[in-house]
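Researcher: Re-running this chain for the archive, since the previous output was lost when a drive failed. Same request as before.
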Amino acid sequence: MNSVTRIAAAAILVAIPGAALAHPGHDAGGFAHGLVHPLGGLDHVLTMVAVGLYAALPGGRALWLVPATFVGVMAIGGALGAAGYPLPYVETGIALSVIVLGLAVALRVSLPTLGAMALAGLFAIFHGHTHGAEMPLGVSGVTYAAGFVTATGFLHVAGIGLGLALGGLRSSRRIAQFSGAAVAVAGVALLSGIV
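Model: Regenerated structure tokens:
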């Protein structure tokens, strides 16, 4: 299976929950709120695209295991946030995720797949907690979670696609590294409160 086919398959799998919830009788409002939430913050968008870029660096099993780990742990963090469990330093953890993942891409840090999964999972808990804690009142937690999981999946797929597209040529690899550095700089701005 070539890379384009893998990306298309991943996008279809990520979209299935949204298609299922589009039928009458489902809480489409909760899904819509969840879908929009990750897209409303630069910190979330940058991190989720960086996870995809980072997963594309080694390719192989990391291509799907790293983003899948992020999504799974993010869902756990979302449940904790929705249930009201406190998590200290959430905003700091989110800003650090932008910096660290951006640097990982910029410096082409090569971790074993398990290490890359652990790194993604560490930061996913903070992103998920924020999504859950900011869930609007009166919406279904399940449909809201399906929305933010779907949006996250699409952002990961965008990062993977970008990483695979840029990874083929030597000059394009420099563009990917520059993109990672730009993400890290944005993370520093987020951490310092500039953005």
